[in-house]
Design a protein that fits this description.
- The complex is a heterodimer of chains A (281) and B (171).
- By secondary structure, chain A is of the alpha+beta class.
- Chain A has a domain of 189 residues: C8orf32 fold, CATH 3.10.620.
- Chain A is built from eight helices and ten strands.
- In chain A, strands 8-9-7-6-10 form a five-stranded antiparallel beta sheet. Chain A has a three-stranded antiparallel beta sheet with strand order 1-2-3. A two-stranded parallel ribbon of chain A has the order 4-5.
- The N and C termini of chain A lie far apart (82 Å).
- The longest helix of chain B is centred in the middle third of the chain and has 37 residues.
- Chain B is an all-alpha fold.
- Chain B is built from six helices and no strands.
- The chains are: A alpha+beta (281), B mainly alpha (171).
- At the A-B interface, helix 1 of A face helix 1, helix 3 and helix 4 of B.
Chain lengths: 281, 171
């Protein structure tokens, strides 16, 4: 009986300590969440304005959940079809001489990043404004950026025709990828399309991030040097945590169980990569 | 200081500590009880202590693989559960299930190790352990540890497959 009471006391102490620790973490407070207000204020839709025969302007109104699901972030931006077409034209002229899988894709990703990094300032400014308004920390700001991209519905992008999938798909796109500008214009993107956009935004804000690809898993995602825990690789003495980008809810350091063999993941583009080794000029 | 990360680390430490203590005590008591009741093995038996140490390591190593998935589960739940009680309840419920599963896997691996070795050799291993045969103890212990090292990733994947991760898409 005495031993039983002892065990109960120990379990109770552990439970109390865990409760206290969890209470200190900012859990969402349902009382603070006024969904109707937020949703009304933050509608999610796209408006198409035809400016002339060759120029269509898209205004995207985006709203997405904070990681704590207690409120929404929202922003809107405008993009013209001319910018998207110009970016597509550039993408169609890129080539890579590399035969090595990672290097081949590194060249393409870098070209896409390099060509569009000056053309996505409007989005970077909007995200930064949200960060200022909400007084986000560096970690929270990274989550804001990644969750913005995660929230955009997934679409396949293939270099061939879209005949194998019942999911939204964009077919016959060179390299099976869209550039950051095209992605923001169309809001259609697969794993590497998302990764290149995120790499561009995160690099702009001084985050050390990598684009990781896996030939075995036919997948791509980013890895980022942030204080976190979980699945990571060590690169140049820093810990980079994997971050899945194709759906909401994924946090840094969480590799999906069916793609969690780290040996199958390779660094394609790292945060310090500068030199263009082969490209369209 | 990153407060949230520190708190997450504290949750990890507390979870690890409580899981470790409970698992080790239970395993130790069971092994001691089996040795005393079934094989009449008492104190000062080095061979049986080596055997017990390998089983303890095996079970502990197997269960340690659950900590990271449990932490992922906690992070996923912390983002969606609305109250501390709900979160703690779900965390403890899922945690108990995962720990029990990996604990069972650890015990099963140890049993398989012993059974294989017993089947392959003409000697009675437990009689040898009772006689303080260190050679037999080291070999049985090694078999148990190697089997644990080989099966741990599979058991972890099985545990991770039970965690309600969000969906994701690949090409």
């Amino acid at each position: 009986m005495k031993r039983f009471l002892k065990i109960i006391t120990i379990l109770f102490v552990i439970y109390t300590m865990l409760s206290m620790v969890i209470n200190l973490i900012n859990l969402p407070n349902p009382g603070e969440y006024d969904g109707d207000w937020d949703t009304a204020y933050c509608d999610e839709y796209s408006r198409v304005d035809t400016l002339d025969l060759t120029n269509v302007q898209q205004t995207h109104y985006r709203s997405w959940n904070k990681y704590t699901f207690d409120s929404l972030y929202c922003l809107s931006y405008q993009m013209s079809s001319i910018a998207s077409d110009h970016s597509k034209e550039f993408r169609n002229k890129i080539y890579s001489r590399e035969r090595n899988y990672e290097k081949y894709w590194r060249n393409i990703y870098y070209e896409l990043y390099n060509a569009d990094r000056e053309n996505i300032h409007f989005l970077q400014d909007s995200l930064q404004q949200i960060a200022f308004q909400n007084q986000l920390t560096r970690n929270e700001f990274a989550k804001l950026i990644v969750s913005f991209v995660q929230d955009i519905p997934y679409s396949y992008v293939t270099s061939g025709p879209c005949d194998k999938t019942d999911h939204p798909c964009r077919g016959n796109e060179r390299f099976g990828i869209l550039s950051p500008v095209e992605f923001l214009y169309t809001l259609s993107g697969d794993c590497d399309t998302r990764s290149v956009l995120l790499y561009s935004i995160l690099k702009h804000f001084g985050y050390d991030s990598l684009i990781m690809i896996s030939n075995e898993y036919r997948h791509a995602m980013i890895a980022i040097d942030l204080p976190a825990s979980g699945d990571h690789i060590i690169h140049k003495g820093k810990k980079f945590y994997f971050w899945e980008t194709t759906n909401t809810g994924w946090l840094p350091g969480m590799l999906p169980p069916d793609t969690n063999n780290i040996a199958y993941w390779k660094i394609t583009l790292d945060h310090e990569y500068q030199t263009v080794t082969s490209s369209y000029r | 200081m990153n407060i949230k990360l520190s708190l997450l680390a504290i949750v990890e430490i507390l979870s690890g500590l409580s899981i470790g203590i409970v698992i080790m005590i239970i395993t130790y008591k069971i092994l001691k009880w089996i040795g005393r009741k079934r094989y009449d093995i008492h104190q000062n038996n080095v061979a049986y202590s080596i055997f017990m140490a390998s089983v303890l390591f095996s079970v502990g190593y197997m269960v340690s693989g659950v900590i990271q998935p449990l932490l992922s589960l906690f992070r996923i739940m912390a983002a969606s559960e609305s109250s501390t009680t709900d979160l703690l309840g779900s965390f403890i419920g899922y945690g108990a299930f995962y720990i029990a599963s990996s604990y069972t896997a650890g015990v099963v691996v140890s049993l398989v190790g012993i059974t294989i070795y017993t089947g392959l050799t003409p000697i009675d291993e437990f009689a040898e352990l009772k006689n303080d045969n260190l050679g037999v103890a080291l070999i049985v212990g090694s078999i148990i540890i190697v089997l644990t090292l080989l099966t741990r990733d599979g058991v972890n994947l099985l545990m991770e497959s039970q965690i309600p991760y969000p969906t994701h898409f690949t090409q």
